[in-house]
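Pilot study result, target chain (230 residues):
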Amino acid sequence: MEGSLREIADITAGMLPGHPMVAITLRRNGDALTVASTGPHATLIDELQREQGLGPCLEALNTGTAVTITDLATETRWGTYPARMLAQGIRSVHSQPLLVDAVAVGTLNLYSPEPDNFGAAAMQAILLTAAHTAVLLTAAIDSARQAELTTQLRAALASRSIIDQALGIVMAQRRCDRDAAFEVLRIASQRDNVKLVTVAAGIIRGLTGADPTPPHFNLPTRPRRMRRNS
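Predicted structure:
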């Protein structure tokens, strides 16, 4: 993902007038982090505003609205941010939010040494780039959610397998049905203030002397292509 975002930053800088520096910020665990840029200087100036929590990038990220600074020499917003950017040789800035499901998950940030560098033609290219970047982020987020869901499902199935094994042991030892065996596990879970699966694992360990074996999951594989006979 970060490699793809670096390529987007480089392509964006190359196609815009004046070849501005470009950085991409993403929100991770509540924090805004620069995850890709056209170089160390772009990363440095992208991170300057986070020391005081003020700047166009953070405003675009928090509001979901694009922010443009045509000339930092006349900018009065965000405290000392304009002066610090001028000291880095930057005169104009544009921060375009990256929207996923109408929520800003990051920003595409452009920095130019020239004032008023982001005209109508540049803005059209920026909007198109931001839209394509948002599509990439959407795919990455969906993939991460699916991976998390798969992990949770596997954990649930593993716990169920351990509980079922323990129920079988209790049913055999006490000569009772499944409901009565489950009640034994439930009472022990409440008494010891531990999860049901922990009680079940203890029962298996007490009988076998070993930890319960987790179930094996076969991952789906791509079907092999049939080879044609020559």
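One observation from the pilot: The chain has seven helices and five strands. A full batch analysis is planned for the follow-on phase.
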